[in-house]
Specification:
five-stranded mixed beta sheet, 16 helices, 39% helix
């Protein structure tokens, strides 16, 4: 897909379109109807109305009726105070764009923001450099993460014991499974307190510190209170699924001064947006996560049990999180979903070195225990970059 550059006074929504109609005419319909709509009322259209209507910035046709169209939405239509993101979402996707029968396929393939809009977002607090700093590791050090398993049916003490065992193995980050949802038998704050105590004991033993991301997904007004309680109780990070809680809830957490810890964005559910047909490309979702302050974003592991992107597409997705983008810090891509020591090399080949491989069963189901599971991943990573066959 070609590179697009926005005009100074507009942001671009780049759409992939398949239509039996002329591609430009279809794009012009999107531009009009997803911005101001047709003029109604008495008299001729006003100048203000004319300035408020989006326009077709460029069209790149790849076959008859198929191709990409960049629609320019005037930035003057955005709110002059408060969060810009809900307005961006409404213009780009919710006109209702995908419910209209004017084209066979419409997908939001990219979003390009001018500097004045991009500067309104703070982005990740920590990301790649901040995480390495928290862990006291150099730029080339490999990082590894653990997902507590099983995802439900554990007491706070059982979760804490698993976390301590992984910490003794040298893990960098541990997160709750997304199925840990504040059940009465494993309440969030009790779990955080138990894990924090266990990790402090490990740190006293060997100086090993670990980022523990507690799962706080919930109703936004309640979630902020719970997230603050979790951080005050010892959580060194937070995890949220933005499809369950809402994308704007991520910005709420990331910009709150009482929850100034790394945020792990769990992306289970994103395929509902990005499967074939109408929808939103995962690349766009990744950009939104970076804008709104996610420090880590789940990508699907190569060679695992999830429907992962192909290797080239996976690398492009990871680079969307890491490439320079205004003043926004890079997000640390994570990869999970059946990742093991045997599949680790394929993920480095796809995503590059700056990733956070996440394992659940490969660590907590290891026959020699979680510490050995962590060591197996570490040795597999080192062998890959040193060119040593895994069997050795």
């Amino acid at each position: 897909m070609k590179q697009w550059h926005p005009p100074r006074d507009a942001f671009l929504g780049v759409y992939y379109i398949e239509s039996t109609d002329d591609l430009r005419r279809t794009a012009e319909f999107i531009a009009r109807e997803e911005s101001a709509g047709s003029w109604s009322g008495e008299g001729a259209p006003t100048e203000l109305y004319a300035r408020s209507v989006a326009w077709v910035h460029d069209v790149h046709e790849i076959a008859s009726g198929k191709g990409y169209a960049a629609v320019a939405f005037p930035t003057a239509n955005l709110p002059d105070r408060g969060s810009l993101f809900p307005a961006l979402w409404l213009y780009l996707t919710a006109g209702p764009l995908f419910e209209r029968p004017f084209a066979d396929t419409v997908r939001l393939a990219d979003v390009v923001l001018p500097e004045e809009v991009l500067a309104a977002f703070r982005g990740p607090r920590f990301g790649i450099p901040g995480t390495r700093a928290l862990r006291g590791k150099g730029d080339d050090a490999l990082l590894f993460g653990a997902i507590v398993k099983p995802g439900a049916g554990l007491t706070p003490e059982e979760v804490a014991a698993r976390c301590a065992a992984a910490a003794r193995g040298g893990i960098d980050l541990i997160k709750d499974d997304e199925k840990m949802n504040n059940a009465a038998y494993c309440p969030l704050i009790g779990r955080v307190q138990a894990v924090a105590r266990a990790l402090r004991r490990v740190e006293a033993e060997n100086g090993q510190t670990v980022i523990y991301c507690a799962h706080v997904t919930g109703r936004p007004d309640e979630m902020l209170t719970v997230a603050r309680q979790a951080v005050n109780s010892g959580a060194g990070g937070l995890m949220v699924n933005v499809f369950a809680a809402g994308l704007s809830s991520l910005q709420m957490l990331s910009e709150d001064e009482e929850t100034a810890v790394p945020i792990y964005v769990h992306s289970g559910g994103r395929s509902l947006l990005s499967r074939e047909g109408n929808g939103i490309e995962t690349r766009v979702f990744a950009k939104f996560v970076r804008l709104l302050g996610g420090d880590y974003l789940d990508l699907y592991a190569q060679g695992g049990y999830l429907r992962a992107e192909g290797r080239t597409e996976a690398r492009h997705l990871a680079d969307t999180l890491r490439d320079p983008w205004g003043a926004l810090a890079p997000v640390l891509p994570t990869c999970s979903g059946g990742l093991t020591a045997r599949t680790l090399a394929g993920n480095y080949a796809a995503f590059g070195r700056d990733i956070l491989p996440m394992a659940g069963s490969a660590i907590f189901g290891h026959p020699l225990g979680p510490a050995a599971g962590v060591a197996a991943l570490q040795r597999a990573g080192e062998s890959h970059f040193r060119g040593i066959p895994l069997e050795e």
